[in-house]
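Pilot study result, target chain (264 residues):
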Amino acid sequence: HVERLRSCSTAVVAYQTIPELTPDVPRRVISKCYDSVLESLEVLQDLAPKLIPSTTSSKVELEDAWTKLMELEEEQPDVGGEVGTDEPVAKRPKTAGGGAIPFKAKVLGMGGRRFPTNLLPAIKRKRARLVERSPPYLVMDFDKAFTMTIHLCPLLVTIRAFDAAAAGSEQGSKPKMWASATDNLPDKLSVWGVQGTRAQLGNVVERRLQHASAHATNVLRRLFRPSKTPASDFELEIREGTALLQFVSLARQTFHPNFVEDDS
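Predicted structure:
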């Protein structure tokens, strides 16, 4: 069954690399692989507790960026501002006020405002570094696997492969908001257990990182979701700071579960 899963992964990855409009492509490849994988997973699920050790590795891999998705345990309270809505997140609300899901922070770090001094130590303990530009943004490194950049204007998250040259520098160059997800990819890659070179799997990894970035952006915007209760700028700044800290904490919990906070 393990070999069957490897074969299905190889087939799916190979299918994704086939250029569009290529003639003589086998039909129903994805559906056949899907059925085969489900059958094998049902068998392995019963055997897993006996075969897999209980210890969990603390090492972060690039593949964790798209295999471990950030999820909110429950709908978070609103941040403050415009009237909220109960519409599903997957559907963009069409309201006269421009929609309940915000696309940028209203107060936090905007208009030259400095970050609240009580927020900075909490962010630092999560090993997130603030780059004080206009507008400011946060950068989080997950070992030497990948880097997450959290923008406030617009509310946007980008996940890219780790760049050793830029790591650890608050004075480094501003990340390219629309940079290719293939930047800084290692020469050898792994996707769903399939090993390959950057030339072979680079486009697949690029799409996976784009999807992971979009998912993380959705989570960030839901945390910044506006409230039905009017609030002053001071109150909004506190609520947005809390939402940002929640996102940073959730990112560490998701991708680095054995992470230990420190003040270094």
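One observation from the pilot: The CA atoms of residues 132 and 170 lie 8 Å apart. A full batch analysis is planned for the follow-on phase.
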